[in-house]
Design a protein that fits this description.
It contains no helices and 11 strands. The protein is 0% helix and 52% strand. Strands 2, 4, 5, 6, 9, 10 and 11 form a 7-stranded mixed sheet that branches. It has a 4-stranded antiparallel sheet with strand order 1-3-8-7, with no helix packed on it. By secondary structure, the protein is mainly beta. Strand 7 (68-73) and strand 8 form a beta hairpin.
Length: 116
């Protein structure tokens, strides 16, 4: 069983920055595709960014390209999301995700609120 613990959410003004971090309870180096999802009230959960096992390949939702950067440190079993130029529409609960061949694992979520 993989446990994921997020941190770094909070309240920030539009244009500001936040960094989300996620620590996994297992070695992520060789097994898990890591990513961040978000869910705003009344909306479906959506993929924000994803990073390959090696860290060499990344994917970003069009809405965050150029503003968010995902990274991982396999030595520390962590994945981070640097969020710059935040907009009110970025407000949501952000979830860390680890995906193996067979299973998706989720963190408990961390709230990000961007005020206008």
């Amino acid at each position: 069983q993989v446990q994921l613990v997020e941190s770094g959410g909070g309240l920030v003004q539009a244009g500001g920055s936040l960094t989300l971090s996620c620590v996994a309870s297992v070695r992520t180096a060789s097994v898990y595709l890591m990513g961040w999802f978000r869910q705003a009230p009344g909306k479906e959960r959506e993929l924000v960014a994803r990073i390959s096992v090696s860290g060499g390949d990344t994917y970003y939702n069009d809405s965050v390209k150029g503003r968010f950067t995902i990274s991982r440190d396999n030595a520390k079993n962590t994945v981070s999301l640097q969020m710059n130029s935040l907009k009110p529409e970025d407000s949501a609960v952000y979830y860390c995700n680890a995906r193996s061949i067979t299973t998706d694992y989720w963190g408990q979520g961390t709230q990000v609120t961007v005020s206008s």
